[in-house]
Amino acid sequence: MEIVVIGGSGLIGVKLVSKLSSLGHDVISASPSTGVNTVTSEGLVEALIGVDVVVDVANSPSFEDKAVMDSSKLSMMIH
């Protein structure tokens, strides 16, 4: 199964990517350090092409209402 982990270079993401890989999945670690920025959408479409599952463990850039609602745009793009 091909899986994209949004926030794959973070504290939880690194562990999740490692675990999924060890289970035999093809895992893409998506984060700004790998060219995927969910805030600006840079690299996001390319990272999602042909994947079976997306897991989002990224932190919100802010906990203000607007920032949290804007971060939900990822789920709308996937549907």
Lay out the secondary structure.
Layout: E1 2-6, H1 11-22, E2 26-30, H2 44-48, E3 53-56, H3 65-71, H4 73-78
Parallel strand pairs: 1-2, 1-3
Features:
79 residues; alpha/beta; Rossmann fold; three-stranded parallel sheet; 38% helix
Largest sheet: 3 strands, parallel
Share of residues in strands: 15-25%
Q: What strand line-up does the widest sheet have?
A: 2-1-3
Can you count the beta strands?
A: 3
Q: Compute the separation of the termini in Å.
A: 19 Å
Describe this structure in words.
The chain is an alpha/beta fold. It has one domain (2-78): 3-Layer(aba) Sandwich (Rossmann fold), CATH 3.40.50. It has 4 helices and 3 strands, in the order E-H-E-H-E-H-H. It has a 3-stranded parallel sheet with strand order 2-1-3. The longest helix is centred in the N-terminal third of the chain and has 12 residues, at 11-22. The model has no long low-confidence stretch (mean pLDDT 85).
Gist of the model:
This protein is an alpha/beta fold. Helices cover 38% and strands 18% of the residues.
